[in-house]
Design goal:
The protein is an all-alpha fold. It has four helices and no strands. Helix 1 runs parallel beside helix 4. The mean pLDDT is 91.
Amino acid sequence: MSNKPTFSEKLKKAREQLGLSQAQAALAWGVNKRTLQAWERGANTPHEFTIREVERIIEESLKGL
């Protein structure tokens, strides 16, 4: 079993590091709040392209910390 964090774990951790609510993060990252909630719960996983784009956006956001 891999110790690599899942997309949902990385997403939630980044949002919390940025001090954003789910609503704020959804707005900043250009996704629907319910979609973000589903991603964080692991109830839904976006397509690989979307994962890469969201991870890129998060990486850029975290550079400012």
